[in-house]
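can u do me a favor
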């Protein structure tokens, strides 16, 4: 774990000089995306470079830079406002972020802090408007600008607004991260650490909360000097069960190894002594080091603190210009002295093992009953959102399969509340998909159709990207996919079956959440028209692809439902008696396979249903009738 204390370069000591932030924004060109997001690399981008340099945005941007370099501040500010206006209200978002940053830098450097707050308020309102999709990092950048300007302006109302925006943007899980705006404090419940939101001229500007016990929490503070210069500090705190069996010497060694990993290009400064962090029962280290810069540029001092307490590791790293080192050493203790850490609790040691057992029970053994039992037992020790989301999902699905609908609803509701705060890796992605499907089924059974549609649309959020052939219904309360070419409509849920997220635009699957029965749907097929040719094709597929021996066949007409007024698709139902070609452990006892084949003009659609009982066949027929062919 480590905390970075990064500092901005000081202002040039002249009444009208730019801050380092302004210098960086004005003298450095915009990011490649600012001119054209699609042109970043390759020969095509290089060929277009002259045109990009002559774009109206870049021409006006150069005028802003030239005015700032000539210290024509009123002119630079007016030109920067025009530059921003070029990107409003729905211009290139990268140019918009760049232009708003230039204007903010000019206002900030001139001490026009209330105007900087107002300008940031306007950009925040635009970013929050319906239909606006902020680019990555945009909201965080605006929040940091707002917090900085509000502190310098002494605007307590704006400060409160931007701290609330920080809380929302960081997606801090409320049971784990307790914001106390009255006392300006933030408590991290898992570590029992309380840190300030605001302390004197220090303000919290960024929070990346830990979403699982394996993750570390990252916090960033800024100290604002009266003249606008700033000292930036990053802090990292995480839990490492590997520390449990280490003695003090081993813990000290681990801190030194971590420090050496980041300090390969720095020279130690033993003459610069750093104050120890004010916590008891800890092993800690402090070190200052120097980073040599190119000729003519001042050296940078790196100030590092590392601490192990219990199984928790806290790390701090600060960067400060050599000339500012005394100021940094004076201000940093004010920050950590406002932190309260009465003890470093041990997290429940058995929970990781319990979670592995839960995962094995449902993923490997397909034993949802045992998985649910294990999950319910483990929930008592869960506190991170990832733990709560995973365990509540499994407990809810287990209860659903046991026909305990009320209990399933309670667990799945808690899971769905926790999932937005979780980083989605392979296991988590699989479980959140299941939570949304089972939650939708329960909502539909309870008559909450809008909730059911919302959850299914979330689950099938990528369905509209299937080559733009299948798109979600425009009405957010309708859980349908529609084929833009044929007009075929697929309900996301019907007869207890749920449409699964597909890998391509032609092959779909419906799954029965209770039994696991799968029905395959293929659209846009070029298959023969004659019955003889179709029968041969189907028998070959069953025998070669599905390893089934086919027997007798029954055929009958099928009345296909449609929403089209100008066509009446014709359908046939084919029912093959089948048996397994060879016995396989765990293989389903399929007795027949039913195909519904519907003529859609130039192509056909086929629904395939392996069935082992009359009930399964009845339910498959219900799905066939629910489709709009």
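np, heres the sequence
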């Amino acid at each position: 774990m480590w905390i970075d204390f990064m500092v901005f370069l000081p202002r040039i000591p002249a009444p009208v000089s730019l801050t380092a932030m302004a210098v960086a924004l004005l003298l450095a060109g915009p990011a490649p995306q600012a001119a054209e997001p699609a042109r970043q690399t390759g020969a095509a981008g290089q060929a277009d470079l002259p045109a990009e340099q002559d774009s109206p945005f870049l021409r006006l941007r150069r005028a802003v830079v030239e005015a700032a370099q000539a210290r024509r501040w009123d002119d630079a500010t007016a030109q920067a406002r025009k530059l921003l206006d070029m990107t409003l209200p729905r211009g290139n978002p990268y140019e918009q972020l760049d232009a708003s940053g230039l204007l903010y830098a000019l206002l900030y450097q001139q001490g026009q802090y209330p105007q900087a707050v107002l300008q940031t308020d306007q950009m925040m309102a635009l970013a929050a408007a319906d239909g606006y999709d902020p680019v990555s990092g945009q909201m965080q950048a605006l929040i940091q600008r707002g917090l900085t300007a509000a502190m310098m302006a002494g605007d307590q109302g704006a400060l409160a607004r931007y701290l609330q925006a920080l809380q929302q943007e960081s997606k801090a899980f409320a049971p784990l991260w307790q914001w106390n705006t009255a006392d300006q404090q933030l408590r991290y419940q898992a570590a029992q650490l309380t840190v300030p939101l605001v302390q004197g001229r220090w303000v919290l500007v960024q929070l990346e909360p830990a979403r699982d016990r394996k993750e570390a929490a990252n916090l960033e503070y800024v100290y604002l000097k009266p003249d606008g210069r700033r000292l930036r500090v990053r802090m990292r705190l995480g839990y490492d069960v590997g520390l449990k069996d280490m003695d003090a010497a081993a813990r000290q060694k681990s801190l030194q190894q971590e420090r050496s990993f980041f300090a390969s290009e720095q020279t130690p400064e033993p003459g610069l002594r750093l104050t120890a962090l004010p916590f008891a029962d800890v092993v800690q280290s402090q070190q200052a080091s120097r980073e040599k810069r190119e000729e003519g540029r001042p050296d940078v001092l790196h100030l590092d603190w590392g601490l192990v307490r219990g199984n928790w590791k806290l790390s701090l790293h600060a960067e400060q210009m050599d000339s500012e080192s005394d100021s940094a050493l004076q201000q940093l203790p004010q920050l950590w002295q406002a932190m309260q850490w009465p003890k470093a609790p041990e997290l429940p040691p058995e929970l990781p093992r319990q979670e592995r057992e839960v995962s094995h029970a449902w993923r490997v053994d397909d034993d949802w009953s045992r998985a649910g039992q294990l999950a319910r037992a483990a929930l008592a020790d869960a506190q991170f959102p990832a733990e709560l989301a995973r365990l509540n999902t499994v407990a809810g699905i287990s209860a659903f399969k046991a026909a305990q609908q009320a209990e399933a609803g309670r667990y799945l509701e808690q899971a769905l509340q926790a999932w937005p705060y979780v980083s989605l890796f392979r296991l988590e992605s699989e479980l959140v998909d299941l939570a949304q499907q089972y939650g939708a089924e329960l909502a539909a059974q309870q008559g909450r159709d809008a909730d059911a549609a919302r959850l299914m649309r979330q689950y099938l959020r990528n369905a509209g990207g299937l080559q733009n052939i299948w798109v979600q219904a425009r009405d957010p309360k309708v859980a349908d996919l529609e084929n833009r070419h044929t007009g075929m409509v697929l309900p996301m849920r019907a007869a207890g079956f749920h449409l699964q997220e597909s890998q391509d635009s032609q092959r779909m699957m419906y799954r029965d959440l209770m039994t696991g029965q799968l029905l395959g749907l293929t659209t846009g097929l070029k298959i023969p028209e004659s019955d003889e040719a179709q029968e041969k094709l189907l028998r070959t597929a069953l025998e070669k692809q599905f390893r089934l021996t086919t027997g007798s066949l029954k055929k009958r007409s099928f009345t296909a439902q449609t929403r089209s007024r100008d066509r009446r698709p014709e359908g046939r139902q084919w029912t093959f008696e089948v048996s397994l070609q060879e016995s396989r452990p765990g293989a389903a006892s399929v007795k027949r396979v039913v195909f519904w084949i519907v003529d859609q003009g130039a192509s056909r659609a086929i629904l395939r249903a392996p069935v082992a009982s009359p009930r399964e066949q009845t339910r498959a027929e219900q799905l066939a009738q629910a489709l709009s062919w």
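DSSP finds 20 helices and 23 strands in the chain. hope that helps!!
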